[in-house]
């Protein structure tokens, strides 16, 4: 990706969503190497308090020692110089005068921050627990008096938590503290005001003072408003209350763009590098302009007021207010009127109730709904309310992403996020909102709805076009709130999830109800017009549905709709009279519309009379997944339902028939254009050619989940697979058999050549059974009963020494000279060996 061009002034990104987190307390930041480095670490390095080992490694995931922890506290207390002066002899037997931490230890003990052990040691290399670290920090801030006499470690942990020292830290009292977590605790303590003693003797008291670790380190404190930023140079320009203007660099953990227009308190190190920023969040409002700025909003050429949507209020604009829109400063009445239009979004900074700074953007993509993210091609597929489109992130020089106000990456964006995009300076500024509410949908109107007693506006574009969408089936299908409004009735009183946009309006509704959005195809078997029910076989399962529907007769052109009693006259499973139908369901599972495509009645000669006439089913094209019917060709996919016969309905797998031939095929084909939706055979199904004959060994026999007999067969030159059997007696365990598989996947035995029937049928005159002892065995040959045969890697070997019913799979290496075997031989090649007696 190209490097972003210099932005002298650009948009406030990190505060585009309501956020209560100060910029200085950001959890982490993305460095130039695109790795996550905690902001606390960057600040600690900028302050000079965090140093690596001799190789420069910070070892943030390693436990910290007592000496290392104390050194950090001495440094943030501004006492490093004093610690240098106190290097040398200590009172601890295990801390030599030349120990690197001798000065820190002498000073820390003298300041009452830490103590040694009763045995006269300090144990500088022992790990520090979270409770011990918290105690040292509390005593360094003079809070030790508040925990003296309190139960250990509960008192220390509770006070440290009250002061916010554990924010963002998973602190377990007696567990060794990790270096990274200790740095986070120190970062949390930087602006905590220390206690100061106000009396002595019997009048000794403590109260909160003004001193902090930052002030103890003589950090430069800067107050003023950020009036300009340079993102490439990591610089901010601040104007103080006296009007003085200065420019400062900022550490990598601070996004300078996020400070534009804010009144801040910042701290800089000796290099005039700002490492910590804080501001009052109440000065900010993230909002949307609700009405175009007009002449009435001006006093002469000066903008005096503006209407905001989220706040639902009108605000005064200060005389010296500064306005930026899409990264450019806007001045002059005409330019302001042209730029400040309804729907423009941004951050508004306030001073004494007046707007003093506006940092705004106008959307190129307004509140679109994310459907899919492709991180490889860097694209985002979205739905804009009426159609699907794609955002190509390789088009601009670069892009910036924030999710709920936090800097993020492309892979962080998820389906159902609401996305806004502004494009300026050849950079896509992408703002993602991820906020939902859940509850029962109680009321639906054209521009609002009610969920669990709360009314929400429906999301609109700047031109008041409805943007909202909904899905009744967990986003399998998306519908427009305005175009498909009638379908919303199915969601009433159902549990829904509402996806909200920036303004808190409903952008998308998600539910999971059975609605008219799904088409069902089936065979109507029986009609009860008195109870108003219809029994329909759908996908091989029969179910009775309540029906309150228009029934459309599609069998002939111009046919009138059917009554339920009229449908009953066409359908009677006792007399083998059926109807091929499509229907839809309402949210309660009641048929609310039905279409009759064809009817079929079985005659005495077992043929079917079909109205309209059955279509020819001439052949199958496995390469293109097509059923050929005369001059018509219908495409089959995984959703096509295929039924073998009407009076004993079984589903047919396309994969089982697509490479077969059919003779005299006829059937009912329901298609949508060229796509076959439902296919019912009325003739010729039994003529579908069977599979080529296979040779296999029956390893097991059982009843399957449908209650049918099935067998596990190891096929020569093939896989081990389960097949349905024609009957319980069709096969026995241990049989070596030739078999075929029909279109339904059922196994049909053509000959058992060893097992319950060890005779060789004339059909298989190329096959013989070789019996006898093995006298010679080579890698590619075997001599059985005095005759030599070929073997190869495909030869199957089984151990039946305990009888055919206890057959075990074996390998060719298990065959020994002297073993008695039976072998299936074809063209001098041994295909199957049974070891019947071990030598």
From TrEMBL:
<keyword id="KW-0677">Repeat</keyword>
<dbReference type="InterPro" id="IPR001119">
    <property type="entry name" value="SLH_dom"/>
</dbReference>
<feature type="domain" description="SLH">
    <location>
        <begin position="24"/>
        <end position="87"/>
    </location>
</feature>
<protein>
    <submittedName>
        <fullName>S-layer homology domain-containing protein</fullName>
    </submittedName>
</protein>
<keyword id="KW-0732">Signal</keyword>
<feature type="domain" description="SLH">
    <location>
        <begin position="88"/>
        <end position="151"/>
    </location>
</feature>
<feature type="signal peptide">
    <location>
        <begin position="1"/>
        <end position="26"/>
    </location>
</feature>
<dbReference type="InterPro" id="IPR051465">
    <property type="entry name" value="Cell_Envelope_Struct_Comp"/>
</dbReference>
<dbReference type="Pfam" id="PF00395">
    <property type="entry name" value="SLH"/>
</dbReference>
């Amino acid at each position: 990706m190209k490097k972003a061009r210099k932005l002298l002034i650009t948009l406030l990104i990190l505060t585009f969503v309501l956020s209560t987190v100060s910029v200085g307390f950001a959890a982490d930041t993305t460095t130039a190497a695109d790795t996550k480095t905690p902001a606390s670490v960057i600040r600690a390095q900028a302050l000079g308090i965090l140093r690596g080992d001799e190789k420069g490694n910070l070892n943030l995931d390693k436990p910290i020692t007592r000496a290392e922890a104390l050194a950090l506290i001495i440094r943030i207390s501004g006492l490093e110089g004093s610690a240098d002066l106190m290097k040398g002899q200590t009172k601890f037997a295990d801390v030599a005068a030349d120990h690197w931490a001798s000065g820190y230890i002498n000073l820390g003990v003298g300041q009452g921050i830490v103590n040694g052990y009763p045995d006269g040691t300090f144990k500088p290399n022992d790990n520090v627990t979270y409770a011990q670290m918290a105690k040292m920090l509390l005593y360094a801030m003079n809070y030790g008096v508040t925990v003296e006499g309190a139960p250990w470690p509960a008192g220390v942990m509770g006070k440290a938590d009250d002061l916010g020292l554990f924010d963002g830290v998973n602190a377990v009292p007696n567990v060794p503290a990790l270096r990274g977590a200790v740095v986070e605790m120190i970062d949390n303590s930087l602006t905590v005001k220390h206690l100061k003693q106000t009396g002595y003797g019997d009048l000794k008291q403590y109260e909160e003072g003004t001193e902090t670790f930052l002030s103890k380190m003589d950090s430069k404190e800067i107050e003023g408003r950020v009036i300009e930023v340079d993102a490439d140079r990591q610089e901010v320009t601040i104007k103080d209350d006296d009007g003085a203007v200065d420019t400062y660099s900022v550490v990598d953990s601070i996004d300078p763009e996020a400070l534009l227009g804010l009144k801040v308190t910042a701290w800089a190190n000796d290099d005039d590098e700002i490492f910590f920023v804080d501001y009052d969040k109440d000065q900010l409002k993230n909002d949307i302009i609700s009405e175009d700025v007009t002449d009435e909003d001006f006093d002469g050429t000066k903008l005096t007021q503006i209407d905001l949507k989220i706040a639902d209020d009108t605000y005064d604009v200060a005389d010296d207010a500064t306005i930026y829109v899409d990264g450019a400063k806007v001045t002059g009445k005409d330019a302001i009127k042209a730029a400040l239009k309804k729907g423009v979004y941004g951050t508004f900074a306030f001073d004494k109730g007046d707007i003093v700074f506006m940092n705004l953007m106008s959307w190129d993509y307004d509140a679109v709904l994310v459907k899919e993210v492709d991180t490889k091609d860097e694209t985002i597929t979205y739905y804009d309310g009426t159609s699907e489109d794609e955002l190509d992130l390789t088009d601009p020089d670069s892009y910036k992403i924030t999710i709920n106000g936090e800097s993020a990456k492309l892979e962080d964006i998820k389906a159902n996020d609401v996305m806004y995009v502004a494009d300026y300076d050849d950079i896509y500024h992408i703002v993602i909102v991820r906020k939902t509410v859940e509850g029962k949908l109680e009321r639906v109107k054209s521009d609002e709805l009610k969920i669990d007693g709360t009314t929400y506006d429906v999301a609109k574009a700047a031109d008041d076009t409805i943007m909202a969408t909904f899905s009744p089936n967990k986003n399998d299908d998306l519908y427009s709130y305005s175009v498909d409004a009638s379908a919303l009735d199915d969601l009433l009183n159902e549990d829904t999830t509402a996806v909200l946009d920036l303004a808190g309006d409903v952008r998308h509704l998600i539910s999971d109800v059975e609605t008219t959005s799904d088409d069902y195809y089936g065979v109507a078997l029986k009609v009860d017009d008195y109870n108003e029910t219809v029994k329909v076989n759908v996908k091989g399962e029969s179910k009775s549905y309540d029906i309150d529907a228009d029934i459309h007769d599609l069998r002939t052109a111009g046919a009138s709709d059917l009554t339920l009693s009229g449908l009953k006259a066409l359908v009677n499973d006792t007399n083998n009279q059926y109807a091929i139908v499509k229907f839809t369901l309402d949210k309660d599972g009641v048929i609310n519309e039905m279409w009759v495509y064809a009817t079929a009645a079985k005659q005495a000669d077992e043929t079917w009379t079909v109205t309209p006439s059955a279509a020819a089913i001439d052949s199958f094209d496995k390469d293109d997944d097509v059923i050929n019917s005369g001059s018509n060709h219908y495409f089959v996919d995984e959703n096509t339902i295929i039924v073998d016969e009407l009076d004993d309905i079984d589903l047919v797998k396309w994969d089982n028939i697509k490479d077969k031939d059919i003779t005299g095929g006829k059937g009912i084909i329901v298609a949508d254009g060229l796509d076959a939706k439902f296919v019912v055979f009325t003739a010729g199904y039994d003529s579908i050619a069977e599979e080529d004959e296979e040779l296999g060994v029956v390893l097991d026999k059982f009843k399957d989940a449908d209650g049918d007999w099935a067998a596990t067969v190891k096929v020569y030159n093939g896989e081990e697979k389960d097949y349905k059997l024609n009957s319980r007696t069709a096969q026995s365990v241990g049989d070596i058999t030739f078999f075929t598989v029909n279109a339904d996947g059922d196994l049909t035995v053509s000959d058992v050549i060893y097992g319950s029937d060890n005779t060789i049928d004339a059909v298989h005159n190329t096959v013989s059974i070789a019996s006898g002892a093995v006298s010679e065995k080579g890698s590619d040959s075997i001599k059985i009963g005095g005759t030599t045969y070929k073997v190869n890697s495909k030869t199957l070997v089984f151990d039946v020494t305990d009888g055919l019913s206890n057959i075990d799979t074996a390998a060719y290496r298990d065959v020994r000279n002297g073993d008695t075997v039976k072998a299936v031989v074809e063209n001098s090649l041994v295909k199957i060996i049974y070891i019947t007696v071990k030598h």
